[in-house]
Records
---
Amino acid sequence: MDKERKLIIAGNWKMNKTVAEALDLVQGLKRELGAIKEVDLVICPPFTALSEVSKASLDSNIRLGAQNMSEHGGGAYTGEVSALMLKEFSVKYVILGHSERRQYQKESDALVARKAAAAHAMELKPIICVGETLQEREGGLMEKVLETQIRGSLAGLSKEQAVESIVAYEPVWAIDTGKTASTEQAQSAHAFIRSILSGMFDEPAAKRIRIQYGGSVKAANARELMSQADVDGALVGGASLEERSFADIVKNSI
Ligand code: PEP
């Protein structure tokens, strides 16, 4: 598939996989996807598996991401993990502002923006998640919600940092529900997000920022979603937990 931007497909393993299970999966992914060069591949295991998965993926085309990090560099923040700590395991990406963290940990756009700045300061690429709820979509508020989240969550980033960031459009109603946005819904939301990015930074920068789609992506719908002009990859939850389904998504996206 000829795309303006290189596709980036990331697996968000959420709170799944012991170290042994994580190692099994990464070995399987290396077997299945070891020859893929057309797509940037990222897996985001839980913190507890980062060390071993890092060693296991060192010699491969699979890059490592974390699912969250602290806005702080270090100190008295019990239970938190800093960007520097992630760098120790060769982590390159970090998911920020996932809707589950926005919902359960009450993460705000301002906090996400501070975390994004902290990630860039350590040369980690943030995957910044945005997306509307079903109620917001049905209430005609989708664009307003997305604009607020994008402006708030990328606030203060330089143009250079924005270009090195990834935005993930994840409609909350499509996450872990089996409901996927239609290709038209995904494309129009992505184009809208890019127009906001263009206003915040400029058009050339906005054209370089990769926007992933997330929400019940599976092998059966990956090709159609990825073929949309402004869809530059996927953030995959459930279907990234098994080697066959993640590998098929990647292969169907090329
Ligand atoms: C996610 O949580 O980022 C996600 C997209 O999950 P799922 O693919 O399971 O809907």
---
Amino acid sequence: MWWKEPVTSLKGIGAKKAADLERLGISSVGDLLNFYPRQDAYSDYSKLNTINALAADGTKQVFKGTVYRVRDSFRQGRGRQNFTVVTVRDATGYIDLYFFGAQRYGARKVKPDETLLVIGRVTRGRTSKIASVVSYDLWDDGDAGKTPGIQPVYALTEGITQKNMASFMRQALSLAEGGIPESLPEDVIKKCALLERITALKNIHFPESWGMLKKARERFIFEELFLLQCGLIYYSLKRQEVRQGVKHGHDGEKTAQLLKNLPFSLTPEQNGAWQEISLDMQNIKPMHRILQGDVGSGKTVISALALAKAAENGYQGCLMAPTEILAMQHYETMKEYLEPLGLKTAVLTGGLKACERKEILAGLAAGKIDIAVGTHALLEEDVKFDALSLAITDEQHRFGVDQRAQLANKSSFAPDVLVMTATPIPRTLALIVYGDLDISAMKGRPPGRKPVQTLLYTEEKRDEVYNGLLRQVNVGSQAYVVCPLIEAPDVMNTRSAETIYEELKNGVLKGVPCALLHGRLKGQEKDEIMAGFAEGEIKVLVATTVIEVGVNVPNAALMVIENAERFGLAQIHQLRGRVGRGEKQSFCVLLTPGDSPESTERLKVLRTCDDGFRLAEEDLKLRGAGQLFGLRQHGLPDLHMADILRDTDVIVKARRLAKETMRNEGDYGKIRQFLDMQFDDRFQMIFNS
Ligand code: ADP
Ligand code: MG
């Protein structure tokens, strides 16, 4: 296959240029063709100007002229610089072309009466228009009427010029013209009215028109998203086929009892999510579902219902949380919900005594324990279930895809898998990252909870904020103070949790029980502090973001976030979800040094917006599509053209068509040939994972 040939097979590429190209990640001809010009940076040379019509504004323009005179000159003074001036003319006027440095060798060789096609930056000189020349060519009358058209601009490295690149690219394209197989199914191309591959390739590098450039881009964006989705679908098909799924019965006695015991009724959002989950569980096909719900949207009770359903069908369920604190909290909640139904629950964490652990493992293996809640400790080799039919992970963003799979592998069946996340992932991203998962999304909160009032203060108001803190404590509420760092700051304007803790304890909060919580404490210390805070003994908790995840203390009514400018919007939203869990009006105070107006500006949206999904999208926009929280981090290939924020509609369409194409695992053969035709193996990677 010609595209696998090294770039040195092209004219003008020797060892030196090959090494330069290597730095751009280009080693084969295929890599070269995959190296698209910079987005939105094409230069428009499709209009040929007459000399009198050139705008003397420093922009690049294209014109032709006949050589009238060539002379060398130099600029005097300290920065003495030699240059060559070529004066050209057409029927409308004269212009002086300036050539500097290495450009001069070529310029000195042009002869009077030759006609040049010039791209240059035109400005006004002392007596006439002048142009610094970007590039020029001898004009061949055979080209009459032809202009350089729309020219690509590549993001290059030293040693390679735009002209080099264009020349390499033309050679590669002519190879492609000699025979390039399609890389998308024919019917998909037809259905979506996409450009043929070769046409798209030619137009992405050397567009015939802006319209064709747009169509070329559309084709490649679609192609990326389509192949990615095919890969994800294949991955999920492959995974399902191995073990038999579990078909749970209709909702029975225990789920009914649990619903009856609840002190509230489910919201319509919760009901909708529960219906979807319940139906999935009744299907022999294993569930792969993500339950997205903003902080406090009430996901826990949904997981309890699912666990009760597994148990009432005679199976076991487990719930894995990313931290010990959260696992314990879930365990307490599950005990409360499930033990009255006659179900046996147990908790498995790293902190257990050997004998306790042994007993629990025995209970799980014998099927005596119905529900296991725990941390990563659940994943350990010797943890075996008798009949696990449901594996739930909470706050999935803290777990890798492998760990999710590892948990599911604890069963001789293919268990139903439910992933709960409070990290609002924009739907578009979820489709990519979890393309193989179905999504249930719960928006909003259960009734009766007042939205957290969010205030924005700068450093000079610190005393006021501290007084507010004291006021809250005096009326019996509790508070969090969240800091980005644990120890003494190595960054200006950033106060560490330790500093703040000392400052409060010895200052405004003298005599008030406070504690310092951070990730470097041992599991047991953390648990003790958390327990003290939950029971109300500790009034103010100074913490790093370890509290981000799921902790529930309804009496906490104030959260102060130090150096709020260092956090993402969605992260702050998650943090503030720790307050406003009770009856009282709660507050979140964002403190910033106030030395950077932009970062303060960015935080303003938090005062009015209470929609985690929207905030996550804002974050994504701010961070730019290029570096969204990396697909690579999820084991997926990078996208060159597609932008998952902008291309939502294409994602949806690509997913639909990918589903049609990949109805079953056998259909992989159809896609395989297209993967082989790709210039790189980015997409092959997901199929092989
Ligand atoms: P999260 O989605 O963040 O895990 P939780 O499940 O912890 O949220 O729920 C937050 C709080 O809301 C809990 O105290 C829970 O008991 C309560 N809650 C859940 N569902 C409802 C409801 N339908 N009506 C009233 N309160 C509810
Ligand atoms: Mg939760």
---
Amino acid sequence: MLRGGYLFYEVGRRAAAFAAEHPDAELIRMGIGDVTRPLVPAVIEALHKAVDDMSRAETFHGYGPDFGYDFLREAILRRDYAARGVSLDLDEIFVSDGAKCDVGNIQELFSSDAVVAVMDPVYPVYVDTNVMSGRSGRFDEQKGGYERIVYMPCRAENGFVPELPKERADVLYLCFPNNPTGMTLSKEHLKRFVDYARQSGALLLYDSAYESYISDPAMPHSIYEIEGAKECAVEFRSMSKTAGFTGTRCAYTVVPKAISARDTLGNTVRLRDLWARRVSTKFNGVSYITQRGAAAAYSKIGNEQVLAVVADYMENARIIREGLQQAGYTVYGGVNAPYIWLKVPHGDSWKFFDELLSGYHIIGTPGAGFGSAGEGYLRMTAFATRENTIRAMERIKRGSV
Ligand code: MLT
């Protein structure tokens, strides 16, 4: 049984209740990672043009290809992979309406007794979708997690880097740059996970929705930069934070053909084919208009424009990091990711969430909502407007609204 509500729903509910009681409060939203900058001009232009295409019989589009238009998949292959020395085939790319949906849906391919391992703190979707499908067992208060889920704690003491699981795990979810801690994983460390998966036959689910926020050239953007990863890792990417598509919806998942799985009869099957079967059964694709807009973000000019927006958010991250440090807080992340992980002085993250809301009218996300190892932290996002980011830090440094 799922405990409580979905984290961001609960944060929104508390913020709405506070706003209703304090109608004059100017709330600054640094909770859910939702973008505030508009779509870039190259994307807007492509969207308009695509709308016009839909108005004429000769250029009208009905159902699109199940796994995405080639014009978008080719752009993805070129800019996200070939440019980093990674070769993939077009039929290994599946365009979708969101990385959240894909990371939530992929567990449908696994048997009900598959053992899942997650980092703790963790993006709640990985855990909650496995709970919904009956794979987790009950919540164990003493363990601070579900009975049948293996947790890989990421705390300040281990640099927020997960250790390999000691117990058997069939499926491991990894997210780098990490949501919520904002930390990254080096190639050497990622290689340990790839080697582990190849030796044990486990599958890695690698969520790299925030890869465009990496500034350190030594950090891997894709798990396929690690040798052998194509045999054991699925990668999830999103246009949401990269190109401001949280409301427009476009993402993609890479399932290499080299990953094999065993079906219930013991036959060896390609995971890619299972995913293709699921997608074509349950999904009718992302709209032509949206995919045209997404492809424009991969053009030379479009890419320059989206990277400028990313750089702008990362300037917010710097302002938050330094502002919080000046106010005496210990912070992590915010260098290769749009999330700042603040250590709560008294150690109670929901209490601190309430204090921030009532004392400063700022909405964060309590670390405990991401798992028991997140207790004692609070996450802030760099996606607010520049003006609000500066105002929020002024409030915190001043000690009042
Ligand atoms: C977050 O705040 O963690 C993300 O915005 C959630 C999401 O991408 O679904």
---
Amino acid sequence: MDIRVKRAPRIEAEITVPGDKSISHRAVIIAALSNGVCVLRGFLPSDDCMHTVQAMRALGIKIEQPEPTMLVVHGGKRHLKPPAAEIDCGNSATTMRLLMGLLAGQSFDTRLVGGETLSKRPMERVITPLRQMGADITADGPNDTAPIRIRGSKLRGIDYVLPVASAQVKGALLLAGLFAKGKTTVREPAITRNHTELMLDYFLVRTAPEDGAVSIFGDQVPESRDFTIPGDISSAAFWLVAAGAQSGGHLLIRDVGLNETRTAVLGVLVRMGAQVREAIENVEQNEPRGIVEITGATLKPTVVQGKEVPQLIDELPILAVAGALANGTTIIRQAHELRVKETDRIAAIAHNLRSMGAQVIELSDGLEIHGRAPLRGARVPSFGDHRIAMAFAIAGLFADGETIVQDTDCVRESYPDFEKALDELADPKRMRMTTPVISSLAPARAEEE
Ligand code: S3P
């Protein structure tokens, strides 16, 4: 499948985005370990998250799906059953890495396999600390890649400093820690998304957060509870850039997750000259959620680097597109991790931006993007990467002529209705007009030093 895009009319809309991918995975897994029935609403029924659902079903957990975005998870009180066959994680690294942690301490063996892009992703970063906990785990692919073979073992808690800031690895170790003897502490070099910690805490599992670290104590059973997953700010980011890079563009996104470990993208858009307001409406279930409003402008260039990077890692493809639309040179660096995502995102972004007429220098750990060259429509590959596909569909809204993003089935991994939302946003007839609603509630996000 391809996505075809033409220049967008002025955006003036109010939307919601589908459920948060990271939170959906964690909600399913932790509810599955709980001591009763949990109703999850706002679940993201994307390919990635459905692989987690299928995996937990394969491990003996009954999960009903009365509606696409609603799951009824019958928690098994930490008891999992040996799966009848190997578990297919599709292209979901979150599924595979979290399951590695979950399964290392069980009393049975499992084998995890992945699709084409997942089978190239590094797994050593999870294997090394799990082995220190006593896990018997091997990567059967070349260079420590999937398939992963896990022989259930008795685990002991460790105190581990993550060499790479990764929420997936942190989450895997916390899940392993739940089945380990004693206390497991994970220290991170830079703050990453804290959804595992918040979800465990919400399910009344005792964790001990400190500055830059979190600990969990083994042998606890999560208390079953219902949970509503907020909209995914990483999905919202595509629309925020679409409206934010248009002078006069105006977009309101309701019921979106506003966890501060995920909102760095808003700060970058402010630095780039967009006006952004956010209002947290609810923190009852630990995950802050609310409204974001953006008013567009001719964007200014910026530099993205350092500790900010892990907090907007998934937004870098669309921020690179924003950089191409900005008046000057935008630099993204210290983002080596982009090279080991669903594709080498640094190379993919450079390739596609150049095809559309932008001048880009590829750095070993990022990109230098010389902005505001007029973009022209082109045929650009997705490289099998959902966020590359969506970022370049948005680039097409700012290009002359038609942009054809090729091979976009991968978009289903995180945003199955992306194309429908794109059609709606780019079609003035279907647009819902809004008036600014939160200007009175929240001050505009100010530029930070
Ligand atoms: C995720 C963590 C990030 C992110 C991914 C989702 C998670 O990956 O890129 O899309 O849910 O924990 P890393 O842990 O590899 O940084």
